[in-house]
Design brief:
Number of domains: 1
Oligomer: single chain
CATH superfamily: MFS general substrate transporter like domains
Shape: globular
Largest sheet: none
Strand content: under 5%
Number of helices: 6
Order of helices and strands: HHHHHH
CATH architecture: Up-down Bundle
Distance between the termini: 7 Å
CATH topology: Growth Hormone, Chain: A
CATH class: Mainly Alpha
Number of strands: 0
Radius of gyration: 18 Å
C-alpha cells in the first residue's frame, strides 16, 4: 500500500474502533447494572452484596483481559473470527441471562451465602471472561495497522470507559424508567450481536498488506 492508503486505512480503522469500543463499554455496563439489580433479590442490598457482585464481575473482566492477548498471540490469523464469535456468544448469553439468573436464585433460595456466591460466580465467570478478552483481541489485531499505537489505544480505552459510564447512567436513569430488566438486557445483547456483525463485515474477510 502507498503511504496515503496506509494513512487512510489507519484513520478509518481508528474511527470505526472508537465507535465500537464505545458501544462495547456501553453494553458491558448495562449487563453489570442489570445483573446487579437481579442479584440484589438473593444477596440483599448492603455493602457485602455489592462487594460480592462487583468482585465477580471485575474478576471475570480481569482474567479475560489477561488471557485475551495470549489467545491473540496463539491464533494471530484468526483474531477477528475469535473476536466475532466471542461477541456473538456474549450476546447469546445476554438474551438468556435474565432467566438463567432468576432460575439459579430460585434453586438456591435456601442456600448459604458461600454456596450462592459460588454458583453465581460459576454462572457469570464465562461471559465476564469473554467481555474482558475482547479489547486485547481487537487491539492486538489492529497493532499491525495503526501507527503510534500507544496514543491510539489510549484513545480507544478512553471511549470504552466513556461508553461504560454512559451505559451505567442510561440504564439507571433512563432505561429502567421505560423498560423492564429483561428488555434492557435484550438491548445489550443486540449491541453485542451488532458489534460482531460489523467487525466481521468490515474486517473478517479482508487481507491487509
Amino acid at each position: 500500500m502507498s503511504g496515503n492508503s496506509l494513512a487512510q486505512l489507519e484513520k478509518d480503522m481508528l474511527a470505526n474502533l472508537v465507535g465500537l469500543f464505545f458501544i462495547s463499554g456501553f453494553s458491558a455496563l448495562i449487563y453489570q447494572v442489570c445483573w446487579q439489580r437481579l442479584l440484589f433479590t438473593s444477596f440483599g442490598i448492603d455493602l457485602t452484596s455489592i462487594t460480592i457482585i462487583i468482585s465477580i464481575f471485575m474478576l471475570g473482566l480481569g482474567i479475560g483481559a489477561f488471557f485475551g492477548g495470549r489467545i491473540a498471540d496463539r491464533y494471530p490469523q484468526k483474531i477477528i473470527l475469535v473476536f466475532c464469535a466471542i461477541e456473538f456468544l456474549i450476546g447469546m448469553f445476554g438474551f438468556i441471562s435474565y432467566y438463567a439468573i432468576y432460575t439459579l436464585q430460585e434453586l438456591m433460595v435456601q442456600s448459604s451465602l458461600f454456596m450462592l456466591t459460588f454458583w453465581i460466580f460459576a454462572l457469570l465467570i464465562i461471559p465476564t471472561f469473554m467481555m474482558g478478552s475482547t479489547l486485547p483481541l481487537l487491539t492486538t489485531f489492529f497493532n499491525t495497522y495503526i501507527g503510534n499505537i500507544g496514543e491510539s489505544i489510549g484513545s480507544l480505552y478512553f471511549y470504552n470507559t466513556l461508553g461504560a459510564a454512559l451505559g451505567a447512567l442510561a440504564t439507571g436513569f433512563i432505561l429502567f424508567n421505560y423498560l423492564t430488566i429483561s428488555q434492557t438486557l435484550m438491548i445489550a445483547a443486540c449491541l453485542n450481536i451488532f458489534i460482531a456483525m460489523i467487525i466481521f463485515i468490515l474486517y473478517g474477510r479482508k487481507k491487509y498488506e
